[in-house]
Amino acid sequence: MTLAHDVATAELVESSAGQDPKKRRQIMDGARQVFLEKGFDAASMNDIARAAGVSKGTLYVYFENKERLFVELISTEKREELFSVIQLDHDNHDVAGVLARCGYQLIGILTRPYYIQAMRTVFSIVNRMPDIGVEFYGRGPQLCADQISLYLRTQADAGVVTIEDCDLAAAQFMELAQTGIMRKLLFGLLETPSPEEIRRRVDIAVAFFMKVYGAPAGARGEPAVQAFG
Length: 229
Hints:
This protein has helices at about 5-15, 20-40, 45-50, 55-60, 65-85, 95-110, 115-125, 130-140, 140-155, 165-175, 180-185, 195-215. The protein is built from 12 helices and no strands.
């Protein structure tokens, strides 16, 4: 099954649960406004219901608490953005080029102030609601890693790269691409990086990745794939 099928199925399940997608979006728009204005801790379900123009009872039909509403809001917005980023062309054997383009866009999304603040909020919730962390991770980083892994498996089968554990390799690439950025952003030690700085770091990550996993020159009767830069 494709990623598009999985996303469509998830949306169908939401609508078939007796919930109006338009009303759900209305609530999430109101929640976004409240979270931006007041922050997560100060926001209340009363505030969200008022901003969304729905009753508190209606709000609880859709979301049992503000924690789940928050994760749903962030996950939905990021899913829409990440969907185009991780639609990797399995027929494109320029592994370095594909990973570089994916990395530029992916790190650009993950380093936005709104997403960094969302991650901090999830960290503050996860001790008392561990499933929130699992859900947030599964809908974001894990989704990306899974799609990169599938692409790498196709390329390994084609002899373009030499990888035994594609899940591990995908996770390694994602870690390499954000090295020196994400942790500093989370702790407030770094300003949002420029597109040029993101490209520089991703190019280095791709070059390192290909040195480890790139197939030897001539393995497929072609030159070895070279990294961007």
